Amino acid sequence: MNPQLVYDYLQHLQNRIVEAVQLVDGKHFLHDSWQRPEGGGGTSCMLEEGHVFERAGIGFSHVKGNKLPPSASAAHPEAAGRAWEAMGVSLVFHPRNPYVPTVHMNVRFFVAKTPSGISEQDLRAKQGAERSKSSAISGQNVQSRQGGESVEGSAKHHGASQGANEAATRHTVDGRREAAEAGNDGAAHETQPIWWFGGGMDLTPYYGFEEDAIHFHRTCREALDPYNKDLYPQFKQQCDDYFYLKHRKEPRGIGGIFFDDFNQLGFEQSFAMLKSVGDAFLNAYLPIVQRRKDIPYGERERDFQAYRRGRYVEFNLVFDRGTLFGLQSNGRTESILLSMPPIVKWRYDWKPSEGSDEARLYSEFLTARDWLAKP
Predict the structure, then answer these.
(1) Dist. CA 151–CA 166, nearest whole Å
(2) Which of 72, 245, 253, 301 meets the CB 3.0–4.6 Å disulfide criterion with 98?
(3) What is the pLDDT of residues 9-60, one digit of tens each?
(4) What is the pTM of this model?
(5) Which residues make Cβ contacts (< 8 Å) with residue 348, sequence separation at least 6?
(6) CATH class for domain 3-365?
(7) pLDDT-above-70 percentage for the chain
(8) What are the domain boundaries of the chain?
């Protein structure tokens, strides 16, 4: 296991995406580097009032700590009492043209190590206390999963983190812990590091195009197939489960892929899979932007875009555990919230007109659907 390799890749990935998006938009990103008093730091890149993107944020962060915040230790009690570090790249791009979908992508790495000078006996005692403290939260999470409502269980970086997860087979907390221990080559032994990868990407259209949805999902599948052809359907289901607004009883968008707690392939191949996902992002999204960015639109389309952006805000502030992790770990608020859209509207009990393009989004795109099913 070599965290430095992950660190170098993530920084390079952020730079590549920034450069590519600047070419499309014609405006440059603001680069804002920062340090976290508790350890670590990062760089937030923000483009606002661009020609193509009304607001586009992409953050890299590498943060450290001596104790996991409650949002992470509840899902991962085996890591309680350990020093930890988390690093990742996360982005959300909000386009100006309503015919261009909003996109989110996140790739991250987490490792927890035994703090120096702490005996195994003391560490086990700390872990036991943390498990007792988080058992009520964990029980609620299990009940939510059993009810078909997913809860993200990730210790993510806090930068622009917004992504999320649910275990592939909806493990209970104990089951997830067993899987993590098995995948970490002895991580059950307190002196061994506990590590995993997480990430994914998802698309949120305002006006749906089947061609775009198929392209996005096909690109995701092509990124994963070299490692195991079962990964795409597994990660797609996890994405559908997580990016669901249960209070609205609707998905946030057309999904994509999402994974977390991933170490099943060993460090080298798990890292290679993560890189394949990160490297696929530009090809998954920019062709859609190029196809839709010059479509004429008016006030009606902009109004609906602002209304649907409200769902994005609701998800981020109510359900996104990455946001909670960042705030609980004393993260940098400007970086944590750079995923927020610039203009949002809410309306009381609004419904689209029957037969309209807005209604078609709900009936044909915001539904559980296999976009790559053969006709």
Answers:
(1) 6
(2) 301
(3) 999 999 999 999 999 999 999 999 999 888 889 999 999 999 999 999 999 9
(4) 0.80
(5) none
(6) alpha beta
(7) 77
(8) 3-365
- Catalytically annotated residue among 104, 157, 171, 215: 104
What's the rounded Cα separation, in Å, for the pair 100 and 70?
Answer: 37
Nearest in space to 256 (alpha carbons), one of 103, 93, 47 = 103
For residue 305 the two structure tokens come to: 């875009």
Burial state string for 60-81 with b = 16 or more CB within 10 A and e = fewer than 16: bbbbebebbbebbbbbbbbbbb
Distance CA 343, CA 331 (A): 24
Cα 165 off chain centre by: 7
Beta bridge partners of 41: 35, 62
What was the pLDDT predicted at 128?
58
Q: How far apart are the first and last CA of the chain?
A: 43
The type of residue at 194 is I
DSSP 8-state code for residue 148:
T
Rg of the chain taking only CA atoms, in angstroms: 20
Within a 10 A sphere around the Cβ of 358, how many other Cβ atoms?
19
Q: Active-site residue 51, yes or no?
A: no
Return the biggest CA–CA distance within the chain.
67
Query: What are the two backbone dihedrals, phi and then psi, of residue 325, each rounded to the nearest 5 degrees?
Result: -60, -45
Token reading at 124: 């086990």
Q: Percentage helix, strand, coil, to 5, in the chain? A: 45, 20, 35
pLDDT at 90: 95
User: In the predicted model, is pLDDT for residue 107 greater than 80?
Assistant: yes
Q: What is the mean pLDDT of residues 107-122?
A: 69
